[in-house]
Every structure is written in C-alpha cells, then in structure tokens.
Amino acid sequence: MLNLRPYRKNDSQKIVTWVQDENTFYKWSEGRLGNFPVSAERLEQAVSGRIDNEKYFPFVAFDEDGIVGFFTLRQPGEVEGELSFGYVILNPKARGKGYGKQMLQLGIKFAFELYGASKVTLEVFENNPSAYHCYKAVGFIENGYSVTYNICNEEWKSIEMEICNKIHDL
Predict the structure, then answer these.
(1) Is 142 in contact with 127 (CB distance < 8 Å)?
(2) Residue 3's beta-bridge partner residues?
C-alpha cells in the first residue's frame, strides 16, 4: 500500500536514479529540466524553488521500503479550480505492482478533496503507451487537446487528458 508525503529536500537524489536513459528522461520531463542526464541538484532546484508557492505541490509516494514515486500538482496559469499533474515517475523496480495507479489516485484525492479542484489534467506522449493506459485506468480521458514537441530530433505528440470531480459537476 502506498502513502503520499510532501517532497523533501534531497528526495531528488533517489528520484534521478530512476531516469536511466535519454528516452525515459524526455518522456518524463518534456525537456523542462534541461538536457539528459538530469542531476539531483537540477531537479532539487526546479522543485524546491517553488515549494512555498500556494499553487505548486510536489509529492513522493512511499511504501514500507521507502520512496517509489514522484509527481507534482500545480495550478496551470490562472485557471482556478484546476490542477495539472507533472513529472510523474515511478522507480522502475516498482512498476507492475499497481503503484502507478495508487499514486495517481492519491494525487487525485488530494486535488479534489483537500485542494477543492473541479478538474485535474495531465499530458502524456503518444510514444508512452504504458503511462497512457495507466492514466486511463484511473479515469482520465482525452480532452481533444494535443501539442507536438521536437524532442531528440523527432516529433513527439503530447495528448492532454483530464478527470473531473463528479461532486462539482452536480
């Protein structure tokens, strides 16, 4: 069983070890953390510099053996009532155990029940089918929005997905 806690300084040292190749790095970061390989210092700087922001929430998921996942939730722009997942990643050794779904469900619970969001969004690349199917399995649906990025000298299409809080829809 997984639990969430806020990201702590130095969690980045463990998280960056999960990104072992360039393809995984860009699927995870969209290049927003610079070039591969990512350092713990670069991730720490990107995350900790925004921790006091009331619209940015970095989390780690953990089990009895330690941290196994990481993600952020942030308010995109000035859109009140909406949060967006980012930097979603699991330790490769934790995959296939349902941890990705559990972690996302805990993040969604935070967004809807504690933050009061009416909608949560995320983006996933078409070339990342395992993540896409995980997101669908917890209830995310495509919303018709997509963007194409030039990554690794290729065009990568990113699909935006969303899940709405049924309580706010009534």
Answers:
(1) no
(2) 62
Q: Give residue 69's identity as a one-letter amino acid code.
A: G
pLDDT at 50: 67
Q: What is the pLDDT of residues 127-138, one digit of tens each?
A: 999 999 999 999
Q: Which two tokens stand for residue 21?
A: 């190749």
- Cα–Cα distances (Å) from 70 to 14, 67, 152, 154, in that order, read 10, 8, 24, 27
Distance of alpha carbon 158 from alpha carbon 150, whole angstroms: 11
Whether the pLDDT of residue 168 is over 70: the answer is no
CA distance 55 to 78: 10
Give the pLDDT confidence of 58-104 residue by residue, as tens digits. 999 999 999 999 999 999 888 789 999 999 999 999 998 999 999 99
Give the amino acid at 32: R
Band the pLDDT of 9: cuts 50, 70, 90: confident
Beta-bridge partner residues of 56:
74
Neighbours of 141 (CB within 10 A): 11
84-107 CB burial, b ≥16 within 10 A, e <16 = bbbbbbbbeebeeeebbebbbebb
